[in-house]
Amino acid sequence: MPHLSTKLAIVNEEPKPNETERTLIYTAKSIVLVALLFILCSLIGMSVYFWKDSSGQLKSANTAAVAAENAKAVEKVNLIPTDAWKAPEESTIPDNEYGNMIRYGRELIKNTAKYLGPNGSVARISNGMNCQNCHLEAGTKTFGNNYSVFFASYPKKSARSGKMADATERIADCFQRSLNGKVPELSGKEVQAMLAYMKWLGSEQEKGKAAFGSGTEKLKYMDRAADPQKGLLVYQNKCQSCHGQHGEGIKAEDQQAYVYPPLWGAHSYNDGAGMYRLNNFAGFVKNNMPFGVRYPDAQLTDEECWDVAAFVNTQPRPHKEQAQDYPDRSVKPIDAPYGPYLDKFSEQQHKYGPFTPIVLALKEMESKSDLK
Ligand code: HEC
Ligand code: HEC
């Protein structure tokens, strides 16, 4: 291989550096090495510095976020005014016969089915639901359809019947409608115990005074009608896991009461019940469902509440004859789902909205009749 040997020859022919040149090259190499080391060190140093700095920044960003969260929490706590309604202390239940009535009343609200359901031990007059399924935490929860102002507002004229009504008749209403059952004996021990409990609950409530957090929250009306199609999606995503694909709920092992109560079908509230009205349903869901939600930490938007209310209340349920309801049409709630009405809006619009045009029309009628 002559080629290679020539190359080798050429390499070999390079002049050999002398002693001074070698020292020079050696020094140059060292300088380059030191410079490289210096650059490397400063790079490491700088990155450590910046890393530290940015983590410091991260830290302060985190602190800011936590502070903002805390501020929000404080703001939310502030949304519940200090004079909001609260149930009286347990210790205020007297330690006597009357106190026992109060306690029995509370037990009946919590476990209605056990005593008065289809297999009830006292009477069999209702559908298996408990009052507490809708009046949460035995009727004590803020915006959980509580009994705060109930006792203080009776006796009063019932808009639904048009007659002066006693508090016991209002209790009976929920038996007939919400529990799709029979009227219990109004002077009987059970109704009287429930009444004693509600009286105790409302004992710090002044008559005629509105308490913050009472009943359920009244949601703002939407500009459009509530939409059952949109409500179906809310139902599937947020409700179905507990209340079931067919709204049938899930019964407890002993088959007495429900773990998850039904929202429609044969065992649910009938179409004469308060929950069948969109305002009540949407307002209830807002601060209470999915189960565990509490004011002011609602999970659903108002729109989702209206739409899911429309969906659930288009599903089949027991019927209650209600031609006799609201003889005075001027006090009929605008979302009462059955006519006749004072205005000319359709039954459909009264059931699903939009409600604002109805409110405005009724106001105008009222101001005209005031002028007369
Ligand atoms: C399916 C849900 C549901 C169930 C179950 C239910 N209720 Fe109600 N109840 C309501 C709704 C909704 C209202 C508010 C209705 C309205 O304003 O028209 C209401 C209102 C009441 C009120 C009037 C409260 C007030 O401040 O004026 C009383 C009293 C009452 N219910 C008692 C009972 C009792 C007792 C039971 C059990 C036997 C019961 N409810 C079961 C939904 C229910
Ligand atoms: C994690 C389970 C769970 C989810 C999810 C849930 N619920 Fe409930 N719901 C309950 C329970 C439990 C009760 C009864 C509460 C009690 O007895 O204390 C209830 C009660 C109700 C009631 C009153 C009682 C009745 O049967 O009529 C309505 C109305 C209701 N839920 C609607 C909804 C809607 C609408 C959604 C979806 C936005 C929803 N729930 C999601 C568990 C759930």
UniProtKB/TrEMBL annotation:
SUPFAM superfamilies: Cytochrome c. Keywords: Heme, Iron, Membrane, Metal-binding, Transmembrane, Transmembrane helix. Residues 226-316 form the Cytochrome c domain. The keyword Ligase does not apply. Coiled coil: none annotated. The chain crosses the membrane at residues 31-51. This is C-type cytochrome. It comes from Pedobacter gandavensis.
